[in-house]
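Design job #97: recover the sequence.
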């Protein structure tokens, strides 16, 4: 509100013969003013310019308070566009590595940006009843809301496959974008997730190296962004079900590509690290991890780790946050028991050995439940529900 009031009383035209006049060209909504102010701060971050602590705090507040506001979210993403959304995700991921107060704030900012994307890309109806090709979907895509969605997803398809670094040290846009998505508390829409998954598979078929890890210079999440996306998808069981359903859209093609053994099936990415004149190639320790989570969610209709036999909604794994999902603010009171790492991972640029996938914490965001980590197993269904909801 304060931002909007300042903008309204600011003279919008100093050449109109008036002195200190009101803004004669105000924007239509308070959310528009906040989105404009937020975008200006984002652009300074992207350009590497100095941003004051006060501006960063306002940036954080604006995205937090507007997490579920579609007008704000679409306005901000329209101003940024997919490419600068990716660049901002990359900047925040780098700042996160600094640790301390700055790193913690960057983690929260990534969560705010992720929630903004999730809110802006909501599609009415599901893949099952109003998927692409249906009359309902077609009517919506021709609306203003649908026009934003199409423009943003089309731009993301192009920018996600773009290399933002050198040929010898590539950084494709999907990597920081999906890493940003892992920080969301607002659930992503099943249609958006399916569209993004389709586009990422198409990008990999065009460029088989797009999700390979080359060297250790980039720390923006996992190089295999497609598997990371499947981990994000597992938080929306309806999206996982539709993605692998042979009777829905490209469901059978997804199964054939991701778990098939025939010609045309995915060759799961490996890691490549230069060691003098040699290049050492190893398997990704987290290979197929997101796939396993998504398959579990799709098969059971519940988020991974929900006790077998639990009816949908009767035991909510991530019910700590205000949106009914896990949130950083509730981590201290809802931390789950951890399984001991065995064996430890080798040292990485993050510092000490990384926790095994069974650990609750992540080197990128210690206070969050890592979206890449499987849910630890409680001793009994009763204990499991108590662990989730305590």
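Job complete. Output follows.
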């Amino acid at each position: 509100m304060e931002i909007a009031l300042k903008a309204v009383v600011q003279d919008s035209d100093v050449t109109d013969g008036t002195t200190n006049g009101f803004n004669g060209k105000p924007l239509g909504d308070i959310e528009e003013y906040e989105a404009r102010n937020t975008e200006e701060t984002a652009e300074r971050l992207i350009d590497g310019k100095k941003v004051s602590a006060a501006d960063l705090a306002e940036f954080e507040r604006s995205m937090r308070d507007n997490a579920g506001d579609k007008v704000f979210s679409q306005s901000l993403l329209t101003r940024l566009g997919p490419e600068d959304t990716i660049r901002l995700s990359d900047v925040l991921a780098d700042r996160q590595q600094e640790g301390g107060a700055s790193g913690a704030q960057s983690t929260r900012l990534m969560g705010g940006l992720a929630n903004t994307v999730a809110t802006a890309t909501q599609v009415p109806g599901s893949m099952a009843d109003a998927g692409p090709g249906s009359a309902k979907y077609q009517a919506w895509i021709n609306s203003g809301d649908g026009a934003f969605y199409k423009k943003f997803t089309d731009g993301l398809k192009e920018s996600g496959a773009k290399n933002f670094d050198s040929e010898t040290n590539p950084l494709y846009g999907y990597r920081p974008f999906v890493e940003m998505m892992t920080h969301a508390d607002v659930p992503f829409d099943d249609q958006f997730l399916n569209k993004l998954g389709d586009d990422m598979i198409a990008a990999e078929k065009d460029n088989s190296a797009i999700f390979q890890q080359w060297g250790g210079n980039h720390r923006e999440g996992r190089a295999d962004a497609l598997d990371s996306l499947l981990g994000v998808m597992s938080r929306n069981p309806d999206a996982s079900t539709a993605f692998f359903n042979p009777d829905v859209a490209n469901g059978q093609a997804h199964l054939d590509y991701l778990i098939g053994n025939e010609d045309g099936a995915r060759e799961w990415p490996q890691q490549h690290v230069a060691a003098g004149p040699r290049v050492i190639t190893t398997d990704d320790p987290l290979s197929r991890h997101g796939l396993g989570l998504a398959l579990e969610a799709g098969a059971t209709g519940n988020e991974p780790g929900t006790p077998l036999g639990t009816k949908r909604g009767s035991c909510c794994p991530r019910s700590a946050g205000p949106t009914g999902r896990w949130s950083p603010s509730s981590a201290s009171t809802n931390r789950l028991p951890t399984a001991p790492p065995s064996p430890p991972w080798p040292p990485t640029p993050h510092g000490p050995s990384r926790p095994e996938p069974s650990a609750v914490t992540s080197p990128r965001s210690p206070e969050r439940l890592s979206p890449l980590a499987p849910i630890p197993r409680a001793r009994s269904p009763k204990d499991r529900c108590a662990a989730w909801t305590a």
